[in-house]
Amino acid sequence: MQEHDLSFVRVEMALAQSAPSSERGLGAWIRKNLIASTGDTILTIIGIVLVAMILPQLIGWAFINAQWIGTDRTFCATVAQGGIQPDGWSGACWAFVNAKFGQFMFGRYPIDERWRPILVAILFVALLVPLLIPKVPRKGLNAILFFGALPIFAFFLLVGGVFGLPHVETSLWGGLLVTLTLSFVGIAVSLPLGIVLALGRRSKMPIVKMLCVIFIETVRGIPLITVLFMASVMLPLFLPAGVSFDKFLRALIGVSLFAAAYMSEVVRGGLQAIPKGQYEGADSLGLGYWQKMGLIVLPQALKLVIPGIVNTFIGMFKDTSLVSIISMFDLLGVVKQNFSDPNWATPQTARSGLVFAAFVFWLFCFGMSRYSMFTERRLDTGHKR
Amino acid sequence: MTIENAVSAEEIKVNAAKMQVSTTDVAIDIIGMHKWYGEFHVLKDINLKVMRGERIVICGPSGSGKSTMIRCINRLEEHQKGKIIVDGKELTNDLKKIDEVRREVGMVFQHFNLFPHLTILENCTLAPIWVRKTPKKQAEEIAMHFLKRVKIPEQANKYPGQLSGGQQQRVAIARSLCMNPRIMLFDEPTSALDPEMIKEVLETMVGLAEEGMTMLCVTHEMGFARKVANRVIFMDQGQIVEQNTPAEFFDNPRHERTKLFLSQILH
């Protein structure tokens, strides 16, 4: 019988070795991720078949068969429909988008004055890009210019009526201009206001707390359509005769307050996730309430809820389309409005216009989403242990 | 009788000659203090006078109110009856007074409570810069001085999540010291640490005691209590049951509850 030895002393410490080659390389990746088991293999095959069925058709419609240039409907209609395309043709009518591009961007903003929104857009991008890149210095000045100076400048430039610029009524605004203005103001107002509301809701002062709860629950309990409708149709009934707000301004306020209510609940979720010890650590060092919140609690809480914040931003960005019910025309509104243009009435017009609008919305939302993921990774100081 | 702690009394080296206790200068005075959580009476008739330079260890079973008591001293908890006077300032609802007291009283927590989104150095300079209005450069010099004292200056630019528990706790001590406090409160500073790391934290605390810091320490490190404390307080059911010099307390406990407690933790 073999003796069972209870004592053992290691003579030499084992050295770390590199992983076996079967764990590395493309082959290992495919084995692990695509054909690990029978079930996995079946799912992989189904996936490939689905892509193979859909993708060629999509590419054919959007690129290969698409009509890129043209001046009227004949370019996008088949012979039977009174156009130049062969019968049975199916392709995107990008000519329509091309012809209406100016309208999609600016709505009915006078053509001679369109340099104004373009200038604002250039400044917007010029200030936004350095703000988004962490390495660029002077963030404070940049933020003041972006959130303080730019909106004031943009307001006078877009509305006009001063410095010899002709006045452009907001009812003429439209397209992406309206979508982006609404979203920018909504984002810039809703985040700080949402933070204040969230702090208020967690306040120990009963009156402050009650006011915040009433605001949040009221606004959150009403559909955005109702808020916009009330702002545009019912508000004038309560105002004295002769006093009137600009309709666009009312929509701006409505969207901002609406988003702030949602934002405050997202932020509150983050505040609740911060352990009590962080508050106590800050208290024990003698930090005041605003220092404690601004330096310790909010930086951590906001970082935790970046996905929720961006979710709200993206939701709001798309909800701006609802202003069409108060006859303001955002990007989608203008696109839809142009379907009824007899000069462009073909079976492909609506499809192409909607795909274009969807693509523009997607582009902005995807950008926000990717940037938020980048920020999450950048701010992760690895405290999850 | 041996002491079953990670660090035995023999391992703790103390220069007792340096530890002077004032006979006239009162650091903390607690007079007839009571506290309730709702209907639950957690602290009952606490009377405690702490002289400048005293090192007090508070022990007792869990739920006996020892943490709650020291948390009342910097108003992390509110008391409902009686008086707490810290450094001549009475703690009331006056927020300004509370902040004044907190500036003078450092606290070290069981779970460190470092700020995970800030580097070690930023953790240490935050309060001096924002509360004491120290210029940034000077605050960083002070922080590095104390980080050297707790023997981790090389970690200054890391984040708390990258440090071991013992290192984090030493940073927490350094962070408190950067505010130049006159009193230090320790709330079970070694309870969340691995056995190998307890010693490094205790050594830091011994160093503080030798410099004459007034310390109140909730701990079950009896070796530390025996060597460093000049008074041990035993609490049970929200009241102070017994207090004495460490030698008397450990070798000659008088209250039945104290005897039972000591027999449970000493073998």
From TrEMBL, chain A:
Alphabetical list of SUPFAM superfamilies matching this protein: MetI-like (SSF161098)
What stretches pass through the bilayer?
Answer: 41-64, 115-133, 145-166, 172-200, 221-242, 248-267, 301-329, 349-368
Asked whether the UniProt record includes Cell membrane among its keywords, one would answer: yes
Principal cellular location given in the protein's record:
membrane
Keywords annotated in UniProt? Cell membrane, Membrane, Transmembrane, Transmembrane helix, Transport
**Recorded topology in the membrane:** Multi-pass membrane protein
Q: Name one Pfam family in it.
A: BPD_transp_1
Which residues does the UniProt record annotate as the domain ABC transmembrane type-1?
A: 176-367
Which InterPro entries does this one have?
A: AA_ABC_transptr_permease_3TM, ArtM/GltK/GlnP/TcyL/YhdX-like, MetI-like, MetI-like_sf
Per its UniProt entry, which superkingdom is the organism in?
Answer: Bacteria
* Subcellular location as annotated: Cell inner membrane; Cell membrane
* Family as reported in the entry's similarity comment: Belongs to the binding-protein-dependent transport system permease family. HisMQ subfamily.
The protein depicted here goes by the name ABC transporter membrane subunit YhdY
Gene source species: Mesorhizobium ventifaucium
UniProtKB/TrEMBL annotation, chain B:
Keyword line: ATP-binding, Nucleotide-binding, Transport
Q: Which InterPro entries match?
A: AAA+_ATPase, ABC_ATPase_HisP-typ, ABC_transporter-like_ATP-bd, ABC_transporter-like_CS, MetN_ABC_transporter-like, P-loop_NTPase
Molecular function terms, GO-annotated: ATP binding
| Pfam families per UniProt | ABC_tran
Kindly give the SMART domains that the UniProt entry links to this protein: AAA (SM00382)
Please report the stretch or stretches of sequence annotated as the ABC transporter domain. Answer: 28-262
Family assignment?
Belongs to the ABC transporter superfamily.
What's the protein name? ABC transporter ATP-binding subunit YhdZ
Taxonomic lineage per UniProt? Answer: Bacteria, Pseudomonadati, Pseudomonadota, Alphaproteobacteria, Hyphomicrobiales
